[in-house]
């Protein structure tokens, strides 16, 4: 019996990477995904499963015997797809988009297929060199000053996410400063952002060992459109210096997560310079659109910052993860992050003629991420990329126009890019309810949003800005067209009608 | 003229994610990669390009107009492939493998295709739940104690790389300790490894703000097979305590990078317990093979550690990046790494019934990495996975046997897994040269390795262990079969013959 078993196995030897099996199964998954995109509108955008749904459906242990791909794909359809929130749906308007694209997908396929571990130049020269070239291309498209490009003594690197980009720059700034003031003063270092800055900054500071008491979320106001005011920053810094602390790092944001507010870089960088702090510009979402000349002014002042990053996986068609970081002084990163164990020594590194990106990031191993950016840039071309981004902005403008025609709603903060923050305004609720207070309005809008999202027809998320609960309508999913936006507005109105009639 | 141009563009509107275009182009890239695997043996394993080769070939800026995929793939073949070091080649024996597989590739395709950003449960429940389930499956396959599984109060999470896994656990341990002893004592914390521990530990400690003077690389000896001796650790710790420092964290290794040495976990964990330090077990390379009962004993004692990790992208067919981390006390990670801004608030998180993996890692955004592990486990089944791993070990044994038959060579340290550390022994060089010193032997082996690698026929890398320069022959590339190993040995002998005749 056991002999027969062995015989059977010998005849049906499975190889982990047989080219013909790869080809056959690869085509099957391409078709599966193409079908998925064709049908993605049919699924509820926000997943409707309950916590623990999957454990009930899957076995308790991994199978001993192999299972055919057909069966696995059936299970993906049956068990996984219902548990997915469909970020690629044209009716997805939540958070910020994670804009996939054919070219980005193909680039990721090539990267996964070659599966090189490009920690240094030697380990796969093309991975390092293409990354440097593409980062220079992108830097030029964004009209970053030459100091951020390799030709100007700076350089760009692909991180996974903005969290990593900020952590790397905080650590570089920290070590530069500690070298000056002595490591015993680490608890005096202070990191600055605004109350609109992404939580990535606080987390990075925390990981880097910055005293949690020394994280400053400087308050913003509606009057400043929730941008960080240079004067507020200055007085916070001055108070810290007075208290014997040492200002270290500022993260300014172009397009905040809650409301896409913009921190004015010129005055902030001036303050930064005055106090000798590292200024990082986080344009995670809005950086992409600054390749359009009419949006470039939002980056004015970046020439005075120390580092700049944006997420190509957010609104630049480059599938998660792909964060583009440029620094003026790569040496500061390298000093803080380099290691050079014997087993990685090689002639090329010793020649100092090459970039070893392992010293520009947290991890040693790194994927060949530049392939997807290269494919996106070449497959679409700069003109089309601008066209795509402008079409998203125009769809958001259209949505804004629809809101303006319905007096019950209001746009809460000015729209800068492709995201609209809006709500049912307090007055309208007052007509149907006795409660007219801000809190009741917030509650009502929260209920409205939940009702919309539960329908599965569209998906938006919320923010609270200056105490006001807003629904965020973020356009940027790659399949979204203008008629989806019109339909989304109808969904919002229908749910508002129903809720207002009930109340 | 301009009118015609506009007309043309309107007719040929490019969409970033058209399902039919996706299907067509996806099939093209699958075929491109299948052809690549069929031909990968023809390329020199280690890239032979010179620094700067690519900048000479590519334009200085991104194109304005779109380019067809056919042309881009021609350029990949012409400009990128020569600059790749072929980690997927069957003749790749360098560093550790990055073992790709059809199933791993398909899983990555699905993950990229869905392109969800699974930072919390809500953002895509399936991403979180499948990860928890698969990590439990894997934990059971490794016979990890129940305390590391979700059912036992612990849990597993997928990180990108071991660097991240170690950084997260160092930060968790740091904050736990600082809560006890006060943040003003951060400069007293000490982190321990051996002189064989991966540089990831030193880098993680450095990023976490541990005083660089307080990183201990405890010396190992040949007598201990380069494993970390508990007594050496204890005396180092005692000296630190004497000096007023605070022991924090130990990283023990199962399968070191240089020589795949093994730190004996039981006695080390005992010391760890005695001094109240966090013990992390880094089995980046060798963890995989511990799913085979005959190798499981290398993990004995892991039940007394605080955390354990291995890289599924190294020797578990799961393409970069995919590091599996288990912790006994997820609360420690969450305390150190959680953020909960308003825009991420949701009912599921508030119910406390779900895992929000963003609080178990450095970054907020995260890919749906568990899909590739799920596909690997199901497509091959546990029995085949064991078979694959054993076949690699057997190939390494075969190589070892070939070395033993040629008296000029020696195996320098005992082989534990699928990596053989060997060299031309000093005596043989003595026959042809007047120099018999260790240094001359090292130089000779270094020259030999460079000559072998330059040939492009196979690729190995080196290490220096206890002052001895060794060539590392690491088996594990998914396409490698035994005849590749035999051929590799012939290449080594040929180059040795040539060099010995010359000298």
Automatic annotation (TrEMBL), chains A, B:
<dbReference type="GO" id="GO:0030170">
    <property type="term" value="F:pyridoxal phosphate binding"/>
</dbReference>
<dbReference type="GO" id="GO:0036469">
    <property type="term" value="F:L-tryptophan decarboxylase activity"/>
</dbReference>
<dbReference type="InterPro" id="IPR021115">
    <property type="entry name" value="Pyridoxal-P_BS"/>
</dbReference>
<protein>
    <recommendedName>
        <fullName>Tyrosine decarboxylase</fullName>
    </recommendedName>
</protein>
<comment type="similarity">
    <text>Belongs to the group II decarboxylase family.</text>
</comment>
<dbReference type="InterPro" id="IPR015424">
    <property type="entry name" value="PyrdxlP-dep_Trfase"/>
</dbReference>
<dbReference type="InterPro" id="IPR015422">
    <property type="entry name" value="PyrdxlP-dep_Trfase_small"/>
</dbReference>
<dbReference type="InterPro" id="IPR002129">
    <property type="entry name" value="PyrdxlP-dep_de-COase"/>
</dbReference>
<dbReference type="GO" id="GO:0006520">
    <property type="term" value="P:amino acid metabolic process"/>
</dbReference>
<dbReference type="GO" id="GO:0005737">
    <property type="term" value="C:cytoplasm"/>
</dbReference>
<feature type="modified residue" description="N6-(pyridoxal phosphate)lysine">
    <location>
        <position position="314"/>
    </location>
</feature>
<dbReference type="GO" id="GO:0019752">
    <property type="term" value="P:carboxylic acid metabolic process"/>
</dbReference>
<dbReference type="InterPro" id="IPR010977">
    <property type="entry name" value="Aromatic_deC"/>
</dbReference>
<dbReference type="Pfam" id="PF00282">
    <property type="entry name" value="Pyridoxal_deC"/>
</dbReference>
<keyword id="KW-0456">Lyase</keyword>
<keyword id="KW-0210">Decarboxylase</keyword>
<keyword id="KW-0663">Pyridoxal phosphate</keyword>
<dbReference type="InterPro" id="IPR015421">
    <property type="entry name" value="PyrdxlP-dep_Trfase_major"/>
</dbReference>
């Amino acid at each position: 019996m056991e002999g027969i078993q062995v015989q059977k196995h010998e005849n049906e030897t499975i190889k982990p990477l047989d080219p013909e099996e790869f080809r056959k199964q690869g085509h099957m998954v391409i078709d599966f995904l193409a079908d998925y995109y064709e049908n993605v509108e049919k699924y509820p955008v926000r997943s409707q499963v309950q916590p623990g749904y999957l454990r009930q459906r899957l076995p308790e242990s991994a199978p001993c015997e192999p299972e055919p791909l057909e069966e696995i794909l059936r299970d993906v359809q049956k068990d996984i797809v219902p548990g997915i929130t469909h970020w690629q749906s044209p009716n997805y308007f939540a958070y910020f988009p994670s804009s996939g694209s054919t070219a980005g997908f193909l680039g990721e396929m090539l990267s996964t297929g070659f599966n090189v571990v490009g920690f240094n130049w030697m380990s796969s020269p093309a991975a390092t060199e293409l990354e440097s070239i593409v980062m220079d291309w992108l830097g030029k498209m964004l009209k970053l000053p030459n100091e951020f490009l390799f030709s100007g003594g700076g350089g760009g690197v692909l991180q996974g996410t903005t969290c990593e980009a900020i952590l790397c720059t905080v650590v570089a700034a920290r070590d530069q400063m500690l070298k000056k003031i002595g490591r015993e003063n680490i608890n005096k270092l202070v990191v600055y952002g605004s109350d609109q800055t992404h939580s990535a900054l606080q987390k990075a500071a925390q990981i880097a060992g910055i005293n949690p008491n020394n994280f400053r979320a400087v308050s913003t106001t509606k009057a400043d459109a929730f941008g960080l005011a240079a004067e507020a920053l200055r007085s916070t810094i001055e108070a810290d210096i007075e208290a014997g602390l040492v200002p270290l790092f500022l993260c300014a944001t172009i397009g905040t997560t809650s409301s896409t507010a913009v921190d004015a870089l010129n005055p902030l960088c001036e303050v930064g310079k005055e106090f000798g702090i590292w200024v990082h510009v986080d344009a995670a979402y809005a950086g992409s659109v600054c390749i359009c000349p009419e949006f470039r002014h939002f980056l004015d002042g970046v020439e005075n910052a120390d580092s700049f990053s944006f997420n190509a996986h957010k609104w630049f068609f480059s599938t998660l993860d792909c964060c583009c970081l440029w620094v003026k002084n790569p040496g500061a990163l390298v000093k803080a992050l380099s290691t050079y164990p014997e087993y990685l020594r090689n002639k090329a590194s010793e020649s100092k003629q090459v970039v070893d990106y392992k010293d520009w990031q947290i991890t040693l191993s790194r994927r060949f991420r530049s392939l997807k950016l290269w494919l996106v840039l070449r497959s679409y071309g700069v003109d089309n990329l601008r066209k795509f981004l402008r079409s998203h902005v125009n769809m958001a403008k259209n949505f804004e126009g629809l809101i303006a025609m319905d007096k019950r709603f209001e746009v809460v903060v000015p729209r800068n890019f492709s995201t609209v923050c809006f709500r049912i305004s307090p007055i309208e609720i007052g007509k149907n309810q006795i409660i007219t207070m801000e809190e009741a309005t917030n509650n009502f809008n929260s209920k409205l949003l939940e009702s919309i999202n539960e329908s599965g027809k569209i998906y938006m998320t919320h923010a609270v800005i200056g105490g006001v609960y807003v629904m965020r309508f973020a356009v940027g999913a790659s399949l979204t067209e203008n008629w989806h936006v019109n339909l989304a507005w109808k969904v919002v109105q229908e749910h508002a009608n129903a809720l207002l009639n009930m109340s």
